[in-house]
Design brief:
Blueprint: E1 2-5, H1 6-13, H2 22-30, E2 39-40, E3 47-50, H3 55-61, E4 67-73, E5 83-87, E6 92-94, E7 104-108, E8 118-123
Length: 127
């Protein structure tokens, strides 16, 4: 799982116009073109606003519905889940535990800089 921009997800969900000719319909059938949604890269240490936290996760992590979190990596091991967010109470949760479609806003890319507001959404990406 990774983060994707809301604008990119909306573009992917926009329906394609219907093929105009028989041959273009045949071509689309045999060569479907899936819109690819690029992942948003967030550096460790970035400050994020995590919104709409599920009741289950709120109870487990003892946090509110909206929390400011820090993006972190809990391991350097290859081929393992390592991207996580750290709540202000010190608890960490892997991105894979967040619900697809959960809203996240980037507040700052590092402790010293402020980012232009970017809204990202967790998205399952094929391997």
């Amino acid at each position: 799982m990774g983060l994707a921009s809301h604008a990119d997800l909306q573009a992917k969900l926009t329906p394609e116009p219907a093929p105009k000719t028989f041959w273009s319909a045949v071509k689309t059938f045999f060569l479907p073109t899936e819109k690819i949604v690029p992942a948003v890269c967030i550096p460790p240490g970035a400050s994020l606003l995590l919104m709409d936290i599920s009741d289950e996760l709120r109870d487990e992590m003892q946090v509110g519905r909206v929390e400011e979190v820090t993006f972190t990596q809990i391991s350097a091991a290859a081929n393992s889940y390592r991207d996580a967010v750290r709540f202000q109470n010190g608890r960490e949760v892997l991105l894979q535990r967040l619900k697809e479609g959960q809203r996240i806003r980037v507040l700052a890319l590092s402790a010293n800089t402020e980012a232009e507001y970017i809204t990202a959404t967790p998205r399952v990406f094929p391997r």
